[in-house]
Write a structure and sequence with these properties.
With 144 residues, this protein is mainly alpha-helical. It is 65% helix and 0% strand.
Length: 144
């Protein structure tokens, strides 16, 4: 897809993956009692797009800048995913409690919205993997 690996390519791939995930979540919102075009829907879409951009920017770090340990794609994606999902949970706690009480999820016995942190780790990992494979990684990536 990209002839030259670049940081801009990583951010583009992350935003596209975030857009796809956000649109999928928006489509399922009516099952939980929220309209597709609601503040919850647009906030979710924006959060996933920004998560993709951040995982793209994090791709320049092969090693942690302070503690100097190796940071593979799965660790970078998981850290960004859990940070964004924690922010999302803290800002939308009441809405997510309603989602957890719905018939689609309550049968699993999951009551706390903080279970969504696992989703953040998984989605962040997918974003980081796609960015690494399509647009490259490392500190020597050109900007454009």
């Amino acid at each position: 897809m990209f002839k030259m690996k670049s940081l801009t390519g990583r951010v583009f791939v992350g935003k596209v993956v975030g857009l796809v995930v956000g649109l999928i979540v928006m489509v399922f919102l009516p099952m939980f009692g929220y309209p597709i075009f609601s503040m919850v829907g647009f906030g979710t879409l924006l959060m996933f797009i920004l998560m993709g951009a951040m995982t793209g920017f994090m791709g320049i770090f092969d090693r942690h800048p302070i503690f100097d340990f190796k940071m593979p794609w799965w660790l970078r994606g998981a850290l960004v995913g859990i940070a964004f999902m924690l922010m999302y949970i803290l800002l939308n706690f009441d809405e997510l409690e309603n989602v957890m009480e719905s018939a689609l999820i309550s049968w699993m016995g999951l009551k706390s919205p903080f279970w969504a942190l696992i989703d953040g780790v998984f989605i962040g990992g997918i974003m980081s993997y796609a960015e690494d494979k399509i647009a490259g990684k490392g500190k020597d990536l050109p900007v454009a």
